[in-house]
TrEMBL record:
Cellular compartments per GO CC: Golgi membrane
InterPro entries in alphabetical order: GalNAc-T, Glyco_trans_2-like, Nucleotide-diphossugar_trans, Ricin_B-like_lectins, Ricin_B_lectin
PANTHER family named in the record: N-ACETYLGALACTOSAMINYLTRANSFERASE (PTHR11675), POLYPEPTIDE N-ACETYLGALACTOSAMINYLTRANSFERASE 5 (PTHR11675:SF101)
Matching Gene3D superfamilies: 2.80.10.50, Spore Coat Polysaccharide Biosynthesis Protein SpsA, Chain A (3.90.550.10)
Family: Belongs to the glycosyltransferase 2 family. GalNAc-T subfamily.
This protein's name: Polypeptide N-acetylgalactosaminyltransferase
Native source organism of the sequence: Frankliniella fusca
Amino acid sequence: CLGGGSWKCKENEESSAVGSAAALHSDSGAISSNSKGRGILYEQLHDRGKAEEDKTYKPTQLRRWRPVPPVPVNRGMPGENGKAVLIPPEKEALMKEKFKLNQFNLLASDMISFNRSLADVRLEGCKSKVYPKLLPTTSIVIVFHNEAWSTLLRTVWSVINRSPRPLLREIILVDDASEREHLGRQLEDYVAKLPVPVHVFRTEKRSGLIRARLLGAKHVKGEVITFLDAHCECTEGWLEPLLARIAEDRTTVACPIIDVIADDTFEYISASDMTWGGFNWKLNFRWYRVPQREMERRGNDRTAPLRTPTMAGGLFSIDKDYFYHLGSYDEGMDIWGGENLEMSFRVWQCGGILEIIPCSHVGHVFRDKSPYTFPGGVSKIVLHNAARVAEVWMDEWRDFYYAMNPGVHVWMCGGQVEIATCSHVGHVFRKSTPYTFPGGTSKIVNHNNARLAEVWLDEWKEFYYSINPGARSVDVGDVSQRKSLRHKLKCKSFRWYLENVYPESQMPLDYYHLGEVRNVETQNCLDTMGHKSGENLGVSYCHGLGGNQVFAYTRRQQIMSDDNCLDATSPEGPVKLVRCHGMGGNQLWVYDKNAQTIKHVNTGQCLTKPDVRDASTPLLRPCDGSIGQMWVMNSKFKW
Ligand code: LR7
Ligand code: MN
């Protein structure tokens, strides 16, 4: 949930209209309902005929169970039934003080019972579902660093109170080098008295959530590992559907619907069953609306498992053997971030299924900020983890990530990873003669840039880093083991993933250009200025640093920046950034490589530099062949 400024992932939920797969897809040719490789059934994607017995559990691995009765309301206690807790005005100062400790309302949390009751938020169709009488057992693994006592214990108690006892093998708590008194002896003494086995393991030094989870997983005795964050609340019937799905097919990774526990009031708010997981160019996890094609695949049954391209990362169940078969986690990832997309890509590309099970609901405290330290700096760590995902799993599409995070890319050139990638980058700067680029002035500019890069690359790097301080020390580390894992498991390509699992993705399948779009007259570049969907496009001094000045010109003739597209509704403009809808219309642009014009198809107008000097919004004007209507896109043209 980090990145893009927001930790409250659920607030990023997309509300864009749901069309067909084709409608939402952002690139690559017309898609008809019968076009190859789109929205086809999973059974056709993987050869699932073999290894049939691998998918079933031995009888000794299964347990007979019965549903757990609902947790009774603790009359008179705050927050019962998942209601909001209100803090009296005289305690507001104390509340604010305590908020800083965990970036949620700790005072409110401390007032709520560990055993608080919750409303049954499931769809009616879920309540009457019948699951197999025998199911595999699971161990719950919860990792934490400086978690609050009340949230941690409420997580533990909600597991105990709402999981059928025979299915709950144990709870494994992994303390990732916390510095809070209550997480030491006090915790061990407390859990020793609990009615189910609870084990506490401790990392020797701060390891981050990924390596902490690996430590926890090592001690799992159940058949299935279920990971939870340390500030969750499980609701009635949360576990059975996850385990039943895995019992049906051990290569399924099953996630609950993640409901929102408000960080300010601890109100339990049911989340939509119409969102799934996606991601953007910066490799931030994002919620998007489930497309129609997936609804159709599920026979429009909202209680049926929902295949999701990615998962949020914190809450899921996976068969223990399959977890290791798939390569568990990337130990080279630190503290927080990246592992969720890494596992999502890996599951899909290597033959598994990733699903949200809508009959399983677990609440999670979503917060705006992270409460704990990121030793070495947030962006260094998050960029490092994401670069490892990009390197191992994303093939050519790693370029989108590097375009948005140029500092990472520069580091790559000097680094030990992927020498092939680096020489490719060097190629652009060194081998292209200015004469192979079309156009007048740009020829000179490129020539100068090439000389600059060739002679002054070190200084140029410094310039990069001083503007992107977080990227200064980004170090991808050694990814060779993860690559050989991918090879060993004969995993499919990222293109396969985009085409078959995630055709609605904001990663264009094919594109002509990825990089800056420079005006020939002013030598300024198109710039999103960090604007959001619905706001105007900008232009500014070309900084060559990627990010807000990176645009893709796709084969479907969109000009995209992340998940927004250049869009105009009137012949006079303005040109806006609008969420890409993939249906052409106002988002269709024709770049004429020779004339260097960018023509808006619907209005027939040309993209034009601002008419006053220093103005920062480009215009739409009748095409007149003037130099202010000429734009250079020179990254990778193959027409
Ligand atoms: O160094 C650390 N050591 C830890 O043990 C840092 C964190 N942790 C623990 C931490 O105490 C917590 O229990 O790891 C757990 C997750 O950390 P959070 O709660 O700070 O993460 P998050 O909820 O903001 O982030 C989501 O993305 C993460 C990416 O690495 C993890 O996958 C989280 O598990 C994940 N949380 C969810 O999926 C819940 C839904 C949020 C969304 C979207
Ligand atoms: Mn969390």
